[in-house]
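Let us work through a complete example step by step.
Step 1: write down the sequence.
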Amino acid sequence: MRINIVKSKNAEQVYVIHSFRKNGKNTTKIYKKLGTIQQLSDKLNMSRSEVIAWAKEQAAIITKQYNEENDNVIVSLNPSRMISKNKQLTFNCGYLFLQSICYSLRLDNICRNIKYHHKFDFDILHILRDSIYSRILSPSSKRSSFSFAHSLLEQPDYQLHDVYRALSILAKESDHIQSEIYRNSNFLHGRNTKILYYDCTNYYFEIEQEDDFRKYGKSKEHRSNPIVGMGLFMDGDGIPLAFDIFPGNQNEQKTLKPLEQKVIRDFGCSQFIYCSDSGLASQDNKLFNDMGGRAYVITQSLKKLKKEDRDIALDTKQYRKIGSSTFIDLKDLDENDPEVYGSVYYKEIPIESKKISETLIVTYSPKYKAYQAKIRQGQIERAKKMINANGKIKKNRKNPNDPVRFIKMSAVTANGEVAEEEIYGIDEEAIRKEAMYDGFYAVCTDMEGEAAEIIAINKRRWQIEECFRIMKTEFDARPVYLQREDRIKAHFLICYLSLLVYRILEKKLGNKYTAEEIIHTLRKMEMYHLEEHGYMPIYERTDLTDELHEKFNIRTDYEIIKKAKMRNIIHQTKVH
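Step 2: predict the structure and record it as tokens.
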């Protein structure tokens, strides 16, 4: 409502005007006549300017009363009238929370800068943001993702061929996008770059013939398809920092230095503790992180240690409980004591090296010992089932963690001669050797800090493994169906950005919910479109949906949301 002053020959009439839309057009009508300026001035004993100010106050009061009286929406439904044909009636609104994060990351500014360097006529921001929403809410091919984008409250203003053209541009700008997103992410969550975690995985393609980029290599999923590898840096709080991809047959140890140099150069992160697993612990990688104010904490396989170092590590003497300076012998522990069972013990062993001064920190946990023994016992049972009644192995397998490692072959002899038939049974010696390491775990480091701190740093490495799990399971990052190398790179950029957005959302919710709970909830948050009235939520309201609305200061869980209100909500999610 607003006021309108109509001047005539003898007076100035003051009206309250109601503006509204009818049949898709803006129109107005007189809602209330307040009187002339002179009449109101005499009646209220006010000057002309004071009368106008009073009239505006009246318009505000009338507006509030009108809204309260007209809040209820009456929907007329006819049981004999069919719904419209080929018309979408439900829309996802869960993406609005993801959209709020995307715009807070200044994704619109980044895309605007990209457009300055390229010539294209489509909206790359809309394509990129919709690709992120689709990867989280309905992961599938680019064609299917384009279809899913039509189920959002904001419909795509681009075509499918624009999506593929945009992928090529995004691939070229991948490094720029990553560095800018990192800088902007500090506005949402102060980045913890004191510790950087690095790991690699690979993704398969459902093709048989390799090319210059998709190569046959050692697949993490033991598939025989060509693969590409991904190296990922994560910060100390579990939020992705940077990534790169490489041919599937490339040695993972050689992927670290180029990406780490990019982080140092483009991200302004130069002094940090590098943490990774033993598979990335080459001498070159250690040397690279033993300078420039950096240090490293890397897992160490006890089985691969020199014999003298391994013997010291497994010697039960000279261990200490974390937080204590008293030496103990592990043999003296009563592992049935709940306190002992849940405690961690450690020893520090200097490692001789020509180029680096290292310390090996070996930990022992009775709880971890019990866990390993339980897992192995299950594998032994499976190994027994792999041997048939005639004492022959059913299938030859090569996975080093497969139960087949507990099976040995022996030959049956007759009259002093070796029989042709081979008999298989459980290898008790192999079981004994593996059980020696139960409960033990080791890391090597060039740091001089407290052992408890170093152990805690390594303990958080599980988060980067979870990042890969989310991308592979929740986001269905593989198999990859794209053919061109640049578009494949863009696909993984979208997966990386989706993971980053999700992790920020997870932090915003206080890490109280699992990935499955959050993503499932967002996917189910749908609205039913009532033609002339607005949108009606048709999802279940839960503690999680309540917290989403509270954290992002928007609400989509009223019984009905009018179109104007929904437009305001959408606009609010795009404010930095």
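Step 3: interpret the result. The chain is about 40% helix and 20% strand.
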